[in-house]
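Protein entry
_____________
===
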Amino acid sequence: MTDFLASTGQLTTALAVGAFMLMLWLLARMAPEPTALPARRRKEALAESLLFRLTLPFIQAVGVLVAPLPIEATRARYQALLRHSGYPGGLFPNELVAIQILSAIVLPLILGYVYEAVFDRWNHLVWLGALVGYFMPPSRLEDRIRVRVEAIERRLPYALDLIIVCAEAGCSFEDAVFRIVDATQDKDPLSEELRIMRQELELVDLRSALHHFAERVPSGEVTRLTHAILEGERQGTPYKDVLAMARDMMRTRQSTRIEKQAARAQQLLVIPTLLITGAVLVMLIGGMILRSCQDTPIRP
């Protein structure tokens, strides 16, 4: 009888796991497939990350379940975050919400398991990890956007140098972008954006491609550059002169920003320097006082 109950329990468990995996597969099949740039990002992520390959079906399944929820404002915000961060993993807004939910479930379980393994008891404070897991994915995207924008702003003056050289050789702006993209194999954010612009210039006009570039990169430098190129085109100013002026202004602003950061770093170093100096003085003076106390004879 006991063997029968054990085999029945194992069979029930196997059927439950099989039903769960079938439901997961069906829900993942219902998930939308990315296109264009997100599709390329997903292909790259699947090729580079084993963890992403293992977790993607769960993300897609939960994303399908999240789709009917009335959270349009959250979806719009997440769509902007994904666009500005370069569509990591080719994710959709619903899939980003799914990652939040899965992180809020998995992270406290992992923390609880580690805590119990180390201290041999359970602490309910580990459920605070659910809050960390829920808010961590959007925060990571915002950090990714900041790093990406800084990389683009840092490389942009050098890209303008190459475009100006091509302009002096008689190339149009579109031809200059084509030549630069064809000549470089870098995978930095600016090179990727120039490749996207090159593809768009084959389908739309320069104005639309520049507007799309400014929408993808939330940078004041990119916005000013876009406006300068379009304004110069409207007034008939040679674009190499417009780019040369924009490049010089970018480098001036970058130099000013670096000087401000250096001055702020010096201010931040004042307090640690004072603390270290105070500690050294206490050690020196304290040692002198102790030595003098030891050398002084004690009178009865």
